[in-house]
Amino acid sequence: MLQLQYPSLLQAGYFINNEWKTDTSATFPVYNPATGEEIIQVADAADTHATAAVEAAHAAFAQWSRLPAKERSNILRKWYQLIINHTNDLALLLTSEQGKPLAEAAGEVQYGASFIEWFAEECRRVYGDIIPAPVADRRFLAMKQPIGVVTAITPWNFPVAMITRKIAPALAAGCTVVLKPAEDTPLCALALAQLAQEAGMPAGVLNVIPTMQAEAVGKVLTTHPLVQKVSFTGSTEVGRILMKQASSTVKKLSLELGGNAPVIVFDDADIDAAVKGTIASKYRNAGQTCVCANRVLVQRSIYPAFMEAYKKAVAALKVGNGTEEGVTIGPLINTDAIEKVERLLQDALSRGAELVLGGQRTQANSLYYAPTIISRCTTAMELSREEIFGPVSAVYIFDMEADAIALANNTEYGLAAYFFTPDIHKIWRVAEQLEYGIIGVNEGLISFAEAPFGGIKQSGYGKEGSKYGIEDYLAIKYVCLGGMQ
């Protein structure tokens, strides 16, 4: 059993209408990927529970949406502060169910809380417009109002931040929410619900339904007529399915889907900065991020110098249990994840890639994978098209700027891209030509609550974070006032 300073954060039920509900006849285990040990059995919500959660959210919407923005803001601020107060416990919970190092987990908790803080402020800035009318006896108004019940489906790789990035703007806008967290990592979601309740969130405003019955529950969340908006982060393949389901009732969608991020290192780059930035992007969360470097493109003239520095830096990374001091890379989330990494690596090696570093599990039958570098990669390899989602750097060589841009854009995805150069003219040229929703220039860490996050192409649409993030949870209502003379 986890030893938390505040044991109430470890919940095992589903949370509907501000009540914890359990059903001991239907549960599923949550495991620690570092040890393989079972942490706890969690209630396995069914489609009927999803329906009940949607109905509770719908019943709560009228009151919550009409609550003055300042009052919603105050509740969100209390929630934010409670999360900050319990950072250590939440970080331990996160590391235990997801595997990332404890310091990284604490950083995620604070990053996740920052979205609640940001949207607690933004909810007081939802402005409409008075539009100049073309005739004298009328007045035109554009009002922004909350869209209604929102369902959110979140992934396992950031079990705090992916939740708050979605539900904070929804709640701030005046919407009510039903959240389905990933089955591998439901505990952080349930802990957040506990703290939301303690912050004074009214009954039905936030509902959380952990489940192993993803298909049945997901269908309710995407097709129920009382749901007006669906927000999903996950694979493009699943996103297509949810998009099709949601189309049956014409719901508004926000989709943050797969990525295939390139990092371009030009020959005028500061090699030390490029190495540091590439590692920050590639190996954070053991490479299990949608914006992490999937392809490292290095200009030929600096390839030897970059590889020497990069290999030295990657070799210094420490793999182990995230609760151990000095560990920088934890385990992968499950067996499917590590087997995918092994499959992609073997395919690349069979097609001519060269193993520079790593390339194996650090322990037999474990989920720990050594930080790996392979060179001489080409577009014929599967990892040039698929997300690796593991601690493997695939390095490519290019000659000209145009070659790098063409190679970077040669993917159906368009989430994040990075490049390194001090040349301001090149910065403008390359940033404008890269087909991605997020661009990091001379920097590998680009995610902040204040900045818009989201992709283009088959990486989805919609923005999370920033002043734009709340817009996806609002509907614009046009009001025409006649007889005004």
UniProtKB/TrEMBL annotation:
Keywords: Oxidoreductase. The keyword ATP-binding does not apply. One of its GO terms (molecular function) is succinate-semialdehyde dehydrogenase (NAD+) activity. The active site is at E256. InterPro entries: Ald_DH/histidinol_DH, Ald_DH_C, Ald_DH_CS_CYS, Ald_DH_CS_GLU, Ald_DH_N, Aldehyde_DH_dom, Aldehyde_DH_Superfamily, Succ_semiAld_DH. Signal peptide: none annotated. It comes from the Bacteria. Residues 20-479 form the Aldehyde dehydrogenase domain. GO terms for biological process: gamma-aminobutyric acid catabolic process. Belongs to the aldehyde dehydrogenase family. NCBIfam families: SSADH. This is NAD-dependent succinate-semialdehyde dehydrogenase.
